């Protein structure tokens, strides 16, 4: 009997089977060949980063001009920069097998004095020995950077590497980090050139099946139900898949039964949990106590098909508690929960939590922290629970400190609360005043600590002042006195902001200009540079732009680039009769409630003549009543929903109605397809509107939507391997309409993969497959990289495309401005800003801007390539552009 072929607890080296990462290795190779200097790979714990690092050199053997060096940073968190560089130099020499007699290794003491010896002397020698080849550093355990000390040697180390990257065109970096670190620290901004980012995600069903069957091929045979059961337990996580299979192999060997059924899988779950105990415990220890409480609550609620919020409430824990909300966000962002935030993705992990960490025990740990905290403050906390008497009316956050000379008897409260009915029937605020009146009568002196908790928390977009009063959170609005991208390292920007705050606009201009030169891809500093000039000159014309600066940072910067480019051009031409344009940046976090607060603050600022934004349709929908009441014009470059209607709302991007009609007509008339199936995300209002519009137009032309109204991509039971062939063969669909929204693009790409496998199946002699057509959330480099040849021929509707003849000139100008290709959001944000600039006048006011905007006409030379004129409904005239994937690139569709 052979040894157990499944591997747990150590990386898989190049002599063993590593499955399901072909796309990732192709992604790495392609980007190295394209001379992308910094790649950042991230994923959950135990996702297989170390195994991937070990296999990159083998999988890239055909890249003759690249040499790979792996370097683990875990042991160097306390080392100074000089020590890290010295160790890295030794590793390079060792891996390349250079004779130390022929190359001078830098000493730590030398590097401490002159760090540049590593680059100027050592690497120069290495390149000579490599005879022109490139050096690729595979840097593992980036988590060592995650301490709170911003001056840590490791952060200094990466900044040093970033500086080298700008000087040395033969050095490449591939960084491996945990998902949690990616979401808590914007470490990618350490580098002047933003890295290419790729997730090391869960394996899909096909790859998981290969991981299950290939290692034990010829020894174990798995029934289809058994493979399905393993996949449901592991969710495609390679480590947990191997743990389950390891246990299965042990059982098969003991029973001498080598056909694996679903029952066999169920029988080894406890053994698998036992085998994975050490790693699961390590996995668990990485969470805070509130995160553990939430995790246990989700696990327990999922067990009984319940709601974790209601379960927490039974323990008197409010889901609106900031710690719980933060825990939900963190666990969701880091991929431990599904998109509903009410289910744990990996079933084996959930079962382990149920066994080892029941909710009641984790609640106990949380209570201990509260009691210890309150004891240290000299406070008494009265906890309420559904299982105790109603007289315990104070919640866990309502703390009171009792004068030490008073003996406090909780039964006094019980008696009082039972006899005063008004107490029970009044608001928390009323209860507070009753308490303050009654307790002195009883001879008890009290000091209210955190008394604001008796009232309410501040609304979103406001913050506490003096512990009691809610005031506007001005940290979300800036003219140049703060950055919304603090993790982008730029010393000149920070110095400029300090000067701006002091009103020293001349110095601010000089420093912001230096900041622009240091990082020309950052639009924020260009906007602030122009703002400082506008304020220095006096009487600026002021517009605001609202972006999600702390949510989808990429979207925010893409929008700001368009705004900054238009502002910069206007101000370089001396503005309007000498009055320059000032742009106020507002961060709405892509959150409707926060956006409302932002809108209210922008409305209060009478200098703001109009607003550019917001990014998502749902957010724009929330703020339109505010702007409408104030008669403040707002023009969105990105919100496409047809439900956005208000006399002050304009759109610089074509609406969903235009996109739906374009897709329907092209599918029916150009492609001559009569039956389609729709794969969509019904949870997105944008997608729902687009889907309905497409279906309406398509059916009106004579087409048919099979399996109406759609196949839901968001269901846990969704299985592309079943749905694609069924739609094609059983229902006769000719095309698949892919409407995933950004959250489900990976599933859409998987549909493309299954479709291609179906086409290439030897039994499919006619090569029948679905034609793939989709919406603009799939218009990204991620689609090209993740889909590869499987998305060849995919047709998408997009608002703007750099490859058209009309857009070519602007695309070139923007590339020169920002040092790289731009997105459609940049183009439409440019157009939105230009439209508002055209509406300005010498006596500009909110009323004149709103009135003039309706009549704005811009030629193609004044915009990003397509003329701009508004319909009577304030919609942009025009239609979207159809592009298709061909040879790994987007091109204009025929």
Main attributes of the structure:
about 45% helix; alpha/beta; 6 domains; Helicase, Ruva Protein, domain 3; 36 helices; globular; about 900 residues
Write the layout of secondary structure elements.
Blueprint: H1 22-33, E1 38-43, H2 49-59, E2 66-72, H3 81-96, H4 108-113, H5 117-130, E3 134-140, H6 153-167, E4 171-178, H7 179-184, E5 196-199, H8 205-213, E6 221-222, H9 224-234, H10 238-255, E7 259-260, H11 262-267, H12 269-275, H13 277-285, H14 289-303, H15 308-313, H16 322-333, H17 347-356, H18 359-376, E8 380-381, E9 399-402, H19 410-419, H20 421-425, H21 428-441, E10 446-448, H22 452-455, E11 462-465, E12 469-472, E13 477-478, H23 491-501, H24 505-518, H25 523-537, E14 541-547, H26 553-572, E15 581-587, H27 592-604, E16 608-612, H28 617-630, E17 633-636, E18 649-651, H29 656-670, E19 675-680, H30 685-701, E20 704-712, H31 720-730, E21 735-739, H32 745-760, E22 771-774, H33 781-787, E23 795-798, H34 808-818, H35 824-838, H36 846-853, E24 857-858, E25 868-869, E26 881-886, E27 889-892
Parallel strand pairs: 1-4, 1-5, 2-3, 3-4, 6-7, 14-15, 14-16, 16-17, 17-18, 19-20, 19-21, 21-22, 22-23
Antiparallel strand pairs: 8-9, 9-10, 11-12, 13-15, 23-26, 24-25, 26-27
């Amino acid at each position: 009997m052979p040894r157990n072929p499944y591997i747990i607890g150590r990386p898989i080296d190049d002599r063993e089977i590593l499955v399901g990462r072909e796309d990732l290795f192709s992604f790495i190779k392609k980007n190295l060949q394209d001379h992308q200097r910094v790649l950042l790979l991230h994923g959950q714990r135990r996702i297989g980063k170390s195994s991937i690092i070990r296999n990159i050199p083998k999988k890239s053997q055909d890249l003759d001009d690249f040499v790979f060096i792996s370097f683990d940073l875990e042991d160097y968190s306390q080392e100074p920069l000089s020590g890290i560089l010295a160790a890295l130099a030794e590793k390079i020499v060792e891996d390349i097998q250079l004779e130390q007699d022929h190359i001078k290794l830098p000493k730590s003491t030398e590097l401490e004095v002159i760090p540049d010896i590593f680059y100027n002397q050592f690497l120069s020698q290495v390149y000579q020995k490599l005879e022109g080849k490139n050096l690729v550093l595979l840097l593992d355990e980036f988590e060592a950077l995650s301490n709170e000390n911003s001056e840590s040697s490791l952060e200094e180390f990466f900044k040093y590497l970033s500086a080298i990257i700008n000087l040395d065109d033969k050095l490449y970096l591939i960084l491996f980090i945990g998902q949690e670190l990616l979401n808590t620290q914007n470490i990618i901004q350490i580098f002047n050139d933003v890295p290419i980012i790729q997730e090391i995600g869960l394996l899909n069903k096909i790859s998981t099946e290969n991981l299950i069957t290939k290692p034990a091929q010829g020894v174990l045979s798995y029934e289809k139900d058994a493979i399905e059961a393993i996949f449901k337990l592991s969710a495609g996580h390679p480590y947990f898949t191997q743990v389950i299979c390891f246990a299965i192999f042990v059982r098969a060997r003991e029973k001498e039964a080598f056909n694996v059924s679903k029952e066999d899988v169920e029988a080894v779950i406890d053994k698998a949990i036992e085998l994975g105990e050490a790693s699961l415990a390590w996995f668990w220890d990485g969470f805070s106590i509130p995160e553990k409480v939430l995790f246990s609550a989700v696990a327990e609620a999922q067990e009984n098909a319940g709601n974790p919020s209601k379960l927490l409430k039974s323990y008197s824990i409010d889901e609106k508690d900031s710690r719980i909300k933060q825990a939900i966000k963190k666990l969701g962002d880091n991929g431990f929960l599904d998109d509903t935030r009410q289910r744990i993705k990996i079933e084996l992990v959930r079962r382990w939590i149920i066994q080892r960490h029941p909710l009641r025990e984790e609640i106990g740990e949380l209570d201990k922290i509260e009691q210890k905290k309150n004891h240290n403050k000299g406070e008494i906390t009265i906890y309420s629970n559904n299982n105790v008497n109603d007289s315990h009316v104070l919640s866990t956050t309502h703390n009171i400190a009792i004068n030490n000379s008073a003996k406090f008897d909780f039964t006094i409260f019980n008696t009082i609360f039972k006899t005063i009915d008004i107490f029970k029937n009044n608001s928390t605020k009323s209860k507070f005043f009753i308490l303050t009146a009654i307790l002195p009568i009883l001879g008890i002196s009290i000091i209210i600590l955190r008394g604001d908790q008796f009232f309410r928390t501040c609304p979103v977009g406001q913050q506490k002042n003096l512990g009691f009063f809610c005031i506007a959170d001005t940290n979300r609005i800036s003219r140049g006195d703060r950055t919304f991208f603090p993790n982008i390292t730029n010393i000149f920007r920070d110095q400029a902001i300090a000067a701006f705050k002091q009103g020293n606009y001349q110095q601010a201009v000089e420093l912001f200009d230096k900041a622009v030169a240091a990082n020309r891809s950052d639009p924020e500093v260009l906007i602030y540079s122009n703002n400082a000039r506008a304020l220095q000159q006096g009487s600026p014309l002021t517009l605001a732009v609202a972006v999600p600066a702390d949510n989808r940072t990429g979207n925010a910067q893409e929008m700001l680039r368009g705004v900054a480019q238009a502002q910069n051009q206007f101000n370089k031409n001396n503005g309007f009769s000498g009055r320059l344009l000032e742009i106020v940046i507002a961060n709405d976090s892509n959150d409707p409630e926060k956006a409302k607060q932002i809108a209210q603050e922008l409305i209060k600022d009478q200098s703001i003549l109009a607003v550019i934004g917001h990014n998502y349709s749902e957010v724009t929908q929330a703020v339109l009543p505010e702007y409408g009441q104030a008669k403040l014009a707002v023009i969105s470059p990105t919100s496409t929903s047809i439900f956005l209607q208000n006399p002050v709302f304009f759109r610089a991007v074509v609406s969903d109605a235009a996109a739906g009609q374009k897709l329907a007509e092209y599918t029916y008339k150009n492609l001559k397809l009569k039956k389609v199936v729709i794969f969509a995300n019904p949870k997105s209002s944008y997608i729902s509107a687009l889907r309905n519009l497409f279906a309406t137009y398509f059916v009106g032309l004579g087409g048919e939507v099979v399996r109406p109204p759609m196949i839901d991509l968001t269901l846990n039971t969704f299985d592309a391997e079943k749905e694609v062939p069924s739609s094609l063969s059983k229902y006769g669909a000719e095309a698949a309409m892919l409407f995933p929204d950004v959250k489900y693009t990976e599933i859409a790409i998987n549909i493309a993969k299954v479709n291609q496998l179906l086409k290439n199946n030897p039994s499919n002699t006619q090569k029948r497959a679905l034609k793939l057509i989709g919406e603009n959330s799939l218009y990204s480099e991620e689609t090209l990289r993740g889909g590869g040849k499987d998305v060849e021929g995919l047709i998408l509707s997009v608002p703007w495309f750099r490859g058209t003849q009309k857009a070519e000139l602007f695309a070139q100008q923007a590339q020169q401005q920002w040092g790289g290709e731009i997105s459609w959001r940049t183009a439409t944000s440019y157009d939105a800003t230009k439209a508002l600039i055209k509406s300005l006048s010498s006596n500009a006011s909110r009323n004149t801007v709103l009135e003039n905007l309706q009549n704005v006409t811009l030629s193609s030379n004044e915009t990003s390539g397509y003329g701009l004129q508004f319909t009577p409904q304030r919609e942009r005239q025009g239609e979207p552009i159809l592009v298709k994937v061909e040879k790994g690139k987007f091109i204009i569709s025929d």
